[in-house]
């Protein structure tokens, strides 16, 4: 279990979990015939800054991280709020400029903000509406296929070693997937986003669903098997009914890289059990 999950468990033991259940990065409440879907994401600037990044990129990344969680749940983000910390006005201004640029990119409406003095950091709150319940972490069923889009899986590893990849500077969530997946929502039994790395994201699905996830190939991208462990891809991971797998693969411009099997909660790759590790702040 990630340290973050352990800390969240302290809250859930006292206050309970939301409608999607423990472990999910997103939750929702019902408002009339709709679901108001929301999440929050944030970090300190020094925790994400690479040598080729500036504070505008930190603001961009805060919005992108928030948007990614909603898109993975097949929900189009519509509104956002943010909270920004900076040691001076210029630091705050730079972060906010990046936030605004990302909000324009994703078509978000601004609801409000808070500004504080301190170590440079950003928190972003995103909201969207849906007429369907978002797919849960624990919805994977034996026989389902694991489908992911093509993307920069594992690229953060290269960036941490000093290489320049545009994805690491300004990652973009593929919002267009939502339109292409319209009509297939009921076939997505479970989902999450990969911001902490593909393998740990798959473990979250396996633990919540009580199943084995067996991978037969790496995610589609430039790094092959290196893409199994990474982080900050900001791409969705879908667990799909096998009857719709090919259609979903085409819609997300990706492919099925594995399947769900009955068995103990674990992730295996070509018969080898993978370590449940991923991005950790602590």
Automatic annotation (TrEMBL):
InterPro entries: PurM-like_C_sf, PurM-like_N, PurM-like_N_sf, ThiL-like
GO molecular function: thiamine-phosphate kinase activity
BP-aspect Gene Ontology terms: thiamine biosynthetic process
Domain named PurM-like N-terminal: residues: 23-129
Pfam families: AIRS
Protein name, entry field: AIR synthase related protein domain protein
Organism from which the protein derives: Ignicoccus hospitalis (strain KIN4/I / DSM 18386 / JCM 14125)
């Amino acid at each position: 279990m990630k340290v973050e999950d352990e800390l969240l468990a302290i809250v859930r033991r006292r206050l309970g979990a939301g409608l999607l259940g423990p472990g999910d990065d997103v939750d929702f409440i019902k408002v009339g015939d709709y679901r108001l879907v929301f999440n929050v994401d944030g970090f300190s600037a020094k925790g994400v800054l690479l040598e080729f990044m500036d504070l505008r990129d930190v603001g961009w990344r805060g919005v992108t991280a928030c948007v990614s969680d909603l898109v993975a749940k097949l929900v189009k983000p519509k509104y956002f709020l943010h909270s920004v910390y900076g040691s001076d006005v210029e630091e705050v201004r730079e972060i906010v400029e990046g936030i605004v640029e990302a909000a324009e990119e994703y078509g978000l409406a601004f609801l409000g903000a808070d500004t504080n003095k301190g170590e440079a950091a950003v928190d972003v709150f995103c909201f969207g509406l849906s007429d369907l319940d978002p797919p849960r972490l624990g919805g994977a069923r034996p026989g389902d296929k694991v489908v992911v889009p093509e993307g920069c899986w594992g690229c953060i590893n290269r960036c941490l070693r000093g290489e320049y990849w545009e994805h690491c500077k300004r990652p973009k969530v593929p919002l267009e997937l939502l339109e292409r997946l319209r009509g297939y929502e009921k076939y997505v039994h479970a989902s999450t986003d990969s911001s902490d790395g593909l393998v740990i994201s798959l473990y979250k699905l396996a633990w919540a669903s009580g199943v084995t996830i067996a991978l037969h190939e790496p995610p589609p991208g430039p790094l092959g098997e290196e893409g199994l462990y990474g982080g900050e891809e900001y791409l969705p991971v879908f667990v799909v009914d096998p009857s719709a797998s090919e259609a979903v693969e085409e819609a997300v411009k990706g492919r099925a890289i594995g399947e769900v099997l009955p068995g103990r909660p674990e992730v295996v790759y070509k018969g080898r059990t993978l370590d449940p590790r991923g991005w950790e702040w602590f």
